[in-house]
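pls design
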């Protein structure tokens, strides 16, 4: 049996230095069991658990990327954000990092029918069990810290 925050098996951890100033996407679940993909855009202020296993992160990417699209694009601002909708069309919320605001993300696409973590294969469920944020996805802005702490942020913050 694995303990919370620990993934069984061999895993290659990532470092904050490796993801600094490069596009790095990571995933998390919310308290309601929904999935979100976060586009960190070079911000290395991501939860430590998101760096725990390059293999698990890649497996989750592949699983989501090969899933059939279930709905049309729903980019909240339209325009440029339309190209960020593939995860949303497969059931995940999509948050993009705000430049020069470490840990801050804006919602760019929201699924009409959110994917539940319970619908995912066991290894992906276990991985997301270490990456569950204490809030509910759908808010326009979020802040997520390096220890997995998170909060909804008012638009004027």
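designed seq:
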């Amino acid at each position: 049996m694995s303990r919370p925050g620990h993934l069984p098996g061999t895993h290659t951890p990532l470092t904050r230095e490796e993801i600094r100033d490069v596009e790095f996407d990571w995933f998390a679940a919310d308290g309601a069991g929904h999935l979100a993909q976060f586009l960190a855009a070079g911000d290395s202020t991501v939860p430590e658990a998101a760096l725990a296993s390059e293999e698990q992160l890649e497996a989750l990417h592949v699983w989501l990327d090969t899933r059939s699209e279930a709905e049309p694009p729903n980019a909240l601002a339209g325009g440029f954000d339309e190209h960020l909708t593939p995860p949303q069309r497969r059931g995940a919320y999509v948050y993009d990092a705000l430049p020069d605001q470490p840990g801050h993300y804006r919602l760019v696409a929201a699924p009409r029918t959110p994917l539940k973590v319970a619908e995912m294969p066991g290894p992906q469920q276990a991985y997301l069990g270490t990456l569950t944020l204490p809030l509910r996805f759908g808010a326009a802005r979020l802040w997520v810290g390096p220890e997995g702490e998170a909060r909804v942020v008012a638009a004027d913050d």
